[in-house]
Write a structure and sequence with these properties.
This protein has 68 residues and is mainly alpha-helical. Helices cover 41% and strands 0% of the residues. It has helices spanning 3-10, 36-40, 46-60.
Length: 68
C-alpha cells in the first residue's frame, strides 16, 4: 500500500515531540542584556549606553531608596 493510500484511509497522526529534561546550567547568563558590560554600557553600543543612563536615573529616584 502506498503512503498516500495509507494517509487517505487512516489520516495523519501528529505525535508529541517528547518531554525534554530540564537543563542543568540554570545559573548561566542567557541574554546579553543581563551581562555586566551591557548593563553599564561599557561595550560601546549607543543603545546600551542610553539604557544604562536610564537605569542609573531610575536607581537614583527617591522612590527607589528603601528605608532600613
Amino acid at each position: 500500500m502506498s503512503d498516500i493510500d495509507d494517509i487517505i484511509e487512516h489520516g495523519i497522526v501528529f505525535k508529541a515531540g517528547g518531554a525534554k529534561a530540564p537543563k542543568q546550567d540554570d545559573n548561566k547568563v542567557k541574554t546579553k542584556a543581563k551581562k555586566k558590560k551591557y548593563i553599564t554600557g561599557a561595550h560601546g553600543s549607543g543603545s546600551a549606553k542610553q539604557k544604562a543612563k536610564y537605569r542609573e536615573q531610575r536607581a537614583k529616584r527617591k522612590s527607589q531608596h528603601h528605608s532600613k
